[in-house]
Design goal:
The chain is of the alpha/beta class. The protein contains 18 helices and 24 strands. Helices cover 28% and strands 23% of the residues. The chain has an eight-stranded mixed beta sheet, with helices on both faces. A seven-stranded mixed beta sheet has the order 7-6-5-3-4-8-9, with helices on both faces. A four-stranded antiparallel beta sheet has the order 16-17-18-19, with no helix packed on it. α3 links the parallel β3 and β4. It is globular. The structure holds adenosine monophosphate (AMP).
Length: 579
């Protein structure tokens, strides 16, 4: 029996499609018809499978943590990832188990990544730059069962392993020859021993594309770090988004060096995107100083790279002081913090390397917008083009953004009116892991980024402020609230407020503002000594300022906007040294 479109209003509903039935204002009548296309789940095993079949000989080159540069191919990475899967399954891993890594960008990290994800495990990249207590907190919150880590991080693991009861296996990402004899970690095995002789025939995939795939905690929120739980589907779609020409736009003739770590929102998706398009990969391991990055850019003829501004600053300094050129590099993506104009101009004008300024968030997998230029902007000439490149860019297909005022109304896209930047899309978080933070979407499914921005008529978004109470230094978050909570423990302190001030090297550095208790006294050094050892060294405020009264807003919260305004000309003692 054939039903015509728009007829048969009384036909029985197709089982399971009630939610798809017309609502008011939609086409009435008829019934949804399924397309006759293959149901091919979007799972990330397909990405590496594709690379093996079509680009199996393309290289993945790693500067290993042990020292030498090692060359592998996608076919080898594939085989060894299968062995990781086999080892994990033999070791009792079940679908949905969280497998943690504390690791640099290397071939072994990539194998652990695919080896875990492709059999339904959740690869949890832990940020090793956090304070050990925070790392332990995150591992416990995630309930990780295994921890794969680089030798660099052995001291961290020695310090926290007995505070993490769910961890039952520790894998050191090295071989027997490099195993430390006196490591104080139980159930420790060398990675090469762990996977040696394991089957390369483990079945991958065959589960729902919405299955969880990766976990990454963000400290860019108030309160405790929150877990962003990526799905296979979101990661595949995000990689396809990245492959758009005006997004990262890399292809088979590119050699890609992701300096941005895999523990930062999946190295901005590059660990999926490069094998998906068959681009070569160069993994920098533990060394991200200017000289080491330059060496790889040069020796491996890298065409495309991605990093936060601080990394590029050190590379540019190295190039300038050694009178070097970048003959192979064609494009760099710079994001995580706003690109300073001098970095943009140096790359484009002194080294003929195109800069793509990108904005995103861990919660967005992370791509949100990219600054590839439009014909209208290019027609305005060089200086205007630079002005547009310094904005945070346009959303690729797959991200929708809007700006709203405090009452939730859309503001005009005039490039002037700023408001709360709201986003939605297929690779944007729906909720945090284990429900942390409660409902994070508005009634239309938009996520509040915590950034304050405007959008211009050409569609370029520009961040103008940050509503969230965090400080970003060298691409990493510093929790102002954590610093404040510790500082108020000092017996002389009544109120403490930490704000980020601009810094030429680190983008932002913390200034701690103190209101003392009546009659109490304390010096800058007293406060800094008190914080010392209670927070990570790089969280230590660069300066302490004292005020009679810390300003409070209408709801009694510290008015950070006012403090940022009051202290906007405060010169941090570390600024001069960095200039
Ligand atoms: P994360 O989740 O650590 O990637 O941090 C995301 C946040 O970093 C954003 O919400 C912004 O506040 C900031 N951010 C990322 N990229 C940029 C950029 N290009 N310009 C300014 N801020 C940025």
């Amino acid at each position: 029996m054939v039903f015509g479109i728009g007829k048969n209003k009384t036909a029985p509903a197709v089982p399971g499609v009630a939610s798809a039935m017309p609502r008011d204002g939609q086409v009435k009548g008829g019934r949804p018809m399924s397309g006759l296309m293959q149901d091919w789940p979007m799972t990330v095993d397909k990405v590496l499978e594709h690379a093996r079949i079509n680009h199996g000989f393309r290289e993945v080159i790693t500067r290993t943590v042990e020292g030498p540069v090692v060359r592998q191919t996608y076919a080898e990475i594939y085989d060894r990832s299968k062995q990781v899967s086999a080892a994990l399954l033999e070791d009792g891993m079940q679908i949905g188990d969280r497998i943690a890594t504390l690791a640099w960008n290397t071939g072994r990290h990539m194998e652990t990544w695919y080896g875990t994800m492709c059999v339904g495990g959740v690869l949890h990249t832990v940020n090793p730059r956090l304070f050990p207590e925070q790392i332990a907190w995150i591992i416990n919150h995630a309930g990780d069962t295994h921890l794969f880590f680089d030798i660099t991080f052995l001291p961290i693991v020695e310090a926290i392993h007995d505070k993490c009861p769910t961890l039952r296996r520790f894998v050191l990402l090295t071989d027997e020859a490099h195993m430390p004899k006196d490591a104080k970690v139980p159930n420790l095995v060398a990675y090469e021993t762990y996977i040696a002789g394991k089957s390369k025939d483990v079945e991958w995939g065959n589960f729902d594309e919405k299955t969880a795939c990766g976990l990454c905690y963000t400290s860019g929120t108030t309160g405790d770090p929150k877990g962003v739980l990526y799905s296979h589907r979101s990661n595949v779609l995000h990689a396809l988004m990245g492959a758009q020409k005006d997004a990262l736009g890399i292809g088979v003739s590119d050699v890609v060096l992701p300096v941005v770590p895999m523990f930062h929102a999946n190295a901005w998706g590059i660990t999926f995107l490069a094998p998906l398009v068959g681009a070569g990969l160069v993994m920098p391991g533990a060394k991200m100083d200017g000289a080491s990055i330059y060496e790889l850019l040069d020796s491996e003829k890298v065409t495309f790279s991605a990093a936060v501004p601080t990394v590029w600053l050190t590379l540019l300094q190295h190039l300038e002081s050694n009178n070097l050129k970048l003959p192979h590099l064609e494009r760099v993506v710079i994001g995580g913090s706003a690109v300073p104009e001098r970095i943009l101009r140096a790359f484009e004008e002194n080294y003929q390397v195109e800069v793509i300024h990108a904005w995103g968030m861990t919660e967005m997998s992370p791509m949100g917008s990219l600054g590839s230029m439009t014909p209208e902007v290019k027609a305005k000439g060089r200086d205007e083009t630079v002005r547009y490149k310094l904005k945070q860019g346009r959303p690729p297909f797959g991200v929708e953004m809007k700006i709203i005022d405090d009452d939730g109304n859309d503001v005009p896209r005039d490039g002037k009116t700023s408001g709360h930047l709201m986003v939605r899309g297929w690779a944007v978080a729906n909720a945090y892991f284990k429900g942390a933070g409660g409902n994070i979407l508005d009634e239309n499914g938009y996520f509040d980024t915590g950034d304050v921005a405007n959008i211009c008529p050409y569609g370029f978004m520009q961040i103008t402020d940050r509503a969230k109470d965090v400080i970003k230094s060298g691409g990493e978050w510093i929790s102002s609230i954590d610093i404040e909570n510790i500082a108020v423990g000092h017996p002389a302190v009544a109120v403490a407020a930490a704000i980020g001030l601009p810094h030429p090297k680190w983008d932002e550095r913390p200034l701690l503002i103190i209101e003392l208790k009546p009659g109490a006294t304390a010096t800058r050094e007293d406060i800094l000594n008190y914080l010392n050892g209670k927070i990570a060294k790089w969280w230590m405020p660069d300066d302490v300022a004292f005020v009679d009264k810390v300003p409070l807003g209408a709801t009694g919260k510290i008015n950070k906007l006012q403090l940022r305004e009051t202290f906007k000309n405060h010169r941090l003692p570390t600024v001069q040294a960095a200039e």
